[in-house]
TrEMBL record:
<feature type="binding site">
    <location>
        <begin position="88"/>
        <end position="91"/>
    </location>
    <ligand>
        <name>NAD(+)</name>
    </ligand>
</feature>
<dbReference type="InterPro" id="IPR003000">
    <property type="entry name" value="Sirtuin"/>
</dbReference>
<feature type="binding site">
    <location>
        <position position="216"/>
    </location>
    <ligand>
        <name>NAD(+)</name>
    </ligand>
</feature>
<feature type="binding site">
    <location>
        <position position="56"/>
    </location>
    <ligand>
        <name>substrate</name>
    </ligand>
</feature>
<dbReference type="InterPro" id="IPR029035">
    <property type="entry name" value="DHS-like_NAD/FAD-binding_dom"/>
</dbReference>
<dbReference type="Pfam" id="PF02146">
    <property type="entry name" value="SIR2"/>
</dbReference>
<dbReference type="GO" id="GO:0036055">
    <property type="term" value="F:protein-succinyllysine desuccinylase activity"/>
</dbReference>
<dbReference type="GO" id="GO:0070403">
    <property type="term" value="F:NAD+ binding"/>
</dbReference>
<feature type="binding site">
    <location>
        <begin position="9"/>
        <end position="28"/>
    </location>
    <ligand>
        <name>NAD(+)</name>
    </ligand>
</feature>
<dbReference type="InterPro" id="IPR026591">
    <property type="entry name" value="Sirtuin_cat_small_dom_sf"/>
</dbReference>
<keyword id="KW-0808">Transferase</keyword>
<dbReference type="GO" id="GO:0017136">
    <property type="term" value="F:histone deacetylase activity, NAD-dependent"/>
</dbReference>
<dbReference type="GO" id="GO:0005737">
    <property type="term" value="C:cytoplasm"/>
</dbReference>
<dbReference type="InterPro" id="IPR026590">
    <property type="entry name" value="Ssirtuin_cat_dom"/>
</dbReference>
<keyword id="KW-0862">Zinc</keyword>
<feature type="binding site">
    <location>
        <position position="53"/>
    </location>
    <ligand>
        <name>substrate</name>
    </ligand>
</feature>
<feature type="binding site">
    <location>
        <begin position="198"/>
        <end position="200"/>
    </location>
    <ligand>
        <name>NAD(+)</name>
    </ligand>
</feature>
Amino acid sequence: MEKIVILTGAGISAESGLGTFRDEGGLWAQHRIEDVATPEGFVRDPQLVHDFYNARRAQAAEAKPNPAHEALARLQREAKGEVVIVTQNVDGLHEAAGATRVLHMHGALDGALCAACDHRWGAPLTMAPDDLCPACQKATTRPDIVWFGEMPYYMDGIWQHLEEADVFAAIGTSRQVYPAAAFGQHAGRAGAHTVELNLEPSANTRDFAEARHGPASAVVPLWVEDVLSL
Ligand code: APR
């Protein structure tokens, strides 16, 4: 039974209206990473960080899955073997399209975390620095998002999936942030057929055995069709 492991990035949600990070005018052109996506930035100005994620949460709440998200959910339903989606994205569009096995390695906008007692709960649409943790009642709540310098979630399981993969596909990601940037090499070394599905060639597209370039909503359904017809 063929095992397929898929890494997705902001590009798969671009056609759902959600911004990417490093494209022209992307999120990191509008905000300094050190201010809104590091633990130090959160300690310095928690209101600024909550405002950044409140805006992204409101935008994500209005966004709809696009044909690329729907195609991956179809692949999970119809493929004979296991299909695992590892996403760097914090929107819920894979789940909204019906995907089931989705590992949010960078957390999720709909999650809240207590920095004091590690309690996790469903984030309200708007969070603020004086929100109290429902468990320990301290004003130490934060978005359940993995920031730069923090360890991504599910890494033990992800390395295992990559070693077991027959096919590894990277979709809509510039593959510039580690450890995700190394997933293709790790899976390829373990024998997986590696595919890049991206709007344009990424910086290290030649690491991959196969590459298809174009908008995810066009490229991904065609790729899924081909995989299911094998
Ligand atoms: N279809 C397919 N690919 C697209 C589309 C589209 N419509 N639009 C953009 N892309 C591609 C771009 O070519 C680029 O390679 O999506 C990629 C987006 O790259 P980034 O903006 O770097 O986003 P991502 O790779 O997800 O960033 C990874 O970096 O800042 C951190 O935590 C953040 O999870 C994020 C991580």
